[in-house]
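Much of what follows relies on a compact textual record of a protein's fold. Think of the row as the fold of the chain written in a discrete alphabet. An example makes this concrete, so a full record is given next.


***
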Amino acid sequence: MTGRPRKTALLSSVFSGLGNQYASALSTGLGQFVVTATLARLLSPVDYGLFGLAAVYTGLATILSQFGVAAALVQRAELTPRFVRAGFTVSVLGGVLTAALVWITAPLAATLLGTTELTPIIRGLSLGFVIASLGFVAEGLSQRKLAWRRLMWVEVGAFFLGYAIPAIWMALAGYGVWALVGSALAQSFVRTVALLALEPHPKWPRIGPEIRELLRFGSGFTLARVFNYGAAQGDNLVVGRVLGVASLGYYSRAFKLMMILVTYFAAVITRVLFPIMSRLQDDRDRLRSTYLSGAAVLGLISAPLGAILVVLAPEFILVVLGPKWIPATVTFQILTAAIMLRNVYLMAYCLDGALGAMRRRTVRDGIYALAVLAGSLIGAQFGIVGVATGVVIAIALNYLIGAAMSLNLLKATWRQYASSQMPALLLGILTAAVAYAIRWGLLEAGAGPLVVLGVTGLVSLGVVGGLCLLRPSVLGWYGEVAVRHLVVALRARLAAMSPAS
């Protein structure tokens, strides 16, 4: 019988994973800003609108092609070569069948989405299903082994070699929307090749009872992801169909910039915590502590960053995207105001996956998808700003439902949850006040957008960071616990690296 994971070993895995993943996130995040800023000056809102509308359809097909196989391999308590072979068989067959289905249905999808220009774009993106399917199992096995350094280099290499270089080259060459299509395929290819090279595994086809077991978990996981995808893309569908492709271009760029904070921050933490929490699924006390501490950390970092970006949105959009994207400013502010809620509710997904509670996730994501669609349709009467407002209301609803379900699973109280969240909320309000005062002073002094953006951001973060160092109690109990664990882990690593050891 397998014993409980040792606390020190798990802490080491958590902070090792976070360190490696954040090295990747910092590299790709900064690169993403540079590439986004460059492409925003080379491509038009219509190019982004067409790609975004095509992605509404192909993104849904992506979820169906994966069928939760990688997550099922991570979540399983015991894994044999037969399960690995079965998982690879399902992944490859799913990728090929999905690519064929999307290629055949592309004209119909384009008609339903409102423009026949989407047909070749959808068909081009369909090739990515076959490419990506070959790497699903290798990625799941790497996550299961907590091979964070390996995954870090895969993500960095795929971004720079597969996405950044081809996207900029094709945009400069005048390929328009095809710069986005080509770079998406190239990034998937580089990522898959790297995963297969770094995580060899049995690939001989396996048709047997293992497939049924993998699909049992994968079916619930996939249905939940379909609903979640509906929530993530429902607003894009409404904007593209009701307000037009150009409006979708502005909306999608505002959404993309906001999501960089999710993709390169919150998603890193939850990616690391999912396999860790899976190992703690039979130890509810430690699982509860991990959930609340993770929620606290996500909030404490998200709230100040979100507050600064809301205040500095006019300068941020102007400097990063350029003058032609100014109509996206208010939309970006509204979406970013809810960044803490969006990031923290990802902890519910970690918990669902760790415990295999897919039915709860499916119900929650179904409600979330309906809320996004309803909010977007009602808000569309007021343009993309109204859509963004409707989406934020849906995010708040999902945050509360996710917290309620998680607390029920963990036998935790709302008082404990509030203790993990209130410090972040107060820190966000304080940060917004500091940033607003500094920005106002610089604008009165006649400072330019770049100076206002840089000085306000750095000084605001410095003030808030200094306060946290001088008065750690502002972090709350769970925040202080997380910081203490971080300090202990860093000291242990430094001691292990010292020559005397």
